[in-house]
Amino acid sequence: MGLKGRLGNVGGALGQAASAGRAAAERAATAGREAAGRSTTAGRAAADAGRDRMAAGGDWVMEALARIGAPQAPATEPWEVSLGKLISSHPLVPDALAKPLKLLNRFGAVRVGPDSVGFDSDDIPWDKVTEIRMIGGYRSLTKEVIDGAFDGVRRVLIAVPGRDWVLDRVSEALTSLLFRRLRGADESGTVQDVLVPGEIVYRGSLGRKKTCPASLYPIAFLLGSPEVVHGLLTTAEAHGVTVVRPEGGLDVVELAVLRELEARAGGQGKTLSPAGGAE
User: Fold this and answer.
1) What is the pLDDT of residues 241-253, one digit of tens each?
2) Three-class DSSP category at 71
3) CA-based max dimension of the chain
4) 195 pLDDT exceeds 70?
5) From 56, 96, 147, 166, which residue has the greatest number of CB atoms within 10 Å?
């Protein structure tokens, strides 16, 4: 199947997710109207329209990232994007999930600032960083990496009601971030790989060389936002840090990662009610 066909399949999967999101939004709106009967009709209509618009497919992902923005180039103040922060921005997230979602930040974050840089739970002072190593973003997203990352979310949220709903939103987020860079790909079913910052090399205790590799979610954030990559690399260069690119140019890779994410995004996950339970 050509790339357009694959995108159509994934679009259908996301359309199903959008329909589920809109249905959940309508149920939430109905419950809200019954509980708050004294609110104005205009206010209710505006809230309903906002929920439906943001819950449509992966639109909420790009809207959330637009609000987060990108680090300055070079950074003059701390900046961060994280998995927990992104999922928390979904319009249907209940208050009961706000605290548990913060647990996701330790293995799903990109941090850039005037004093430090890091992936996931690491925050490394720039004066200890010696290299930023670029990697092929799509080539790094193997099935094993995807499975491990999803299993990590399951483990962290093992006792949290609505875990399956969160996993569905993670699938939506990843698929949306990757598609943003794939829209110009050709009909051959392959795509030119994209280089992103994938490893921070720094001096540890006693001057020992250490590395901080990017996991699945930081790579997805970087693939989805060239502005974030630009801000990180410009800040690195301002601190005299060497940016190392692989030899031999960019590879051409298959879109197997999208097929994997398509299957997950189209899965029959449970829908989370606004009260925090699964329906």
Assistant:
1) 999 988 765 555 5
2) coil
3) 66
4) yes
5) 166
